[in-house]
Amino acid sequence: MKRQIITLIGLFGVTTTLLASNGAENIFDNKCSMCHIKSMPKDKSKLIAPPLMGVMRHVKMAYPTKKSAVDFIVDYVQNPSKSKAICMPQKLARFGVMPSQKGNITPENLRKVASWMYDNYPPANFRGMGGNMSTKGMKAKGMNLNMRHRSTFEMIDSNHDGVITKKEFTDFQTKRMSMMKKQRKNSKQGNCPRVMSK
User: What sections of the chain are H helices per DSSP?
Assistant: First the structure.
């Protein structure tokens, strides 16, 4: 009898967790997915906001603990601003700052959704923009072949303390954007070494 009660309690706990997770995903589907899709699209020109996996990649780089990430999402979604944004500058230029969702989703539901997002995104095999593109596809799009080698946590964590601060993230992005501008400038002037094709 005792074993059956423990089994029932365990099943109740698992069922409750699954329902909470499904509930949060349903809220996301109803409130957020019209802008932030859950998968990578084949045609990125139709996006109206960054996909969820890219958003969460940047959130986790800037806020590596679940509590800090959830707190950031709850605050940002209700009170978004350019100064709080953690995405790359070109994403802000393309999509702009998201509109405040105050009144569209309750803070309690937003916290549930943020927790679900943190637990499920990005998937373990996600490599970011261009991460799965072939060398041939990258050449066809005129992309730098080094984009196959995405930024790692260690590259951004400049003091190697296991935490990426907002300053470290901003410094890394600024340095990276500066390097990309320099590469484009050199490429336009013909100073960029050519990549030999196999």
Answer: 2-31, 52-62, 66-78, 89-95, 107-120, 135-140, 153-156, 166-189
Greatest C-alpha distance within the chain:
80
Burial 98-124 (b: 16+ CB within 10 A, else e): beebeeebeeebbbbbbbbbbebbbee
- Cα-based angle 159, 88, 189 (whole degrees, multiple of 5): 100
> CA-to-CA distance for 143 and 46, rounded, in angstroms?
20
Residues 6+ apart with CB under 8 A from 41: 47, 51
What would the mean pLDDT of 92-119 be, rounded to a whole number?
95
Contact 113, 70 (CB under 8 A): no
User: pTM of this prediction?
Assistant: 0.57
Structural domain boundaries of the chain? 1-126, 133-198
Is the predicted pLDDT of residue 178 greater than 80, yes or no?
Answer: yes
For domain 1-126, the CATH class is mainly alpha
Q: What are phi and psi of 141, to 5 degrees?
A: -90, 0
Q: Is 160 exposed, middle or buried (0-12, 13-18, 19+ CB in 10 A)?
A: exposed
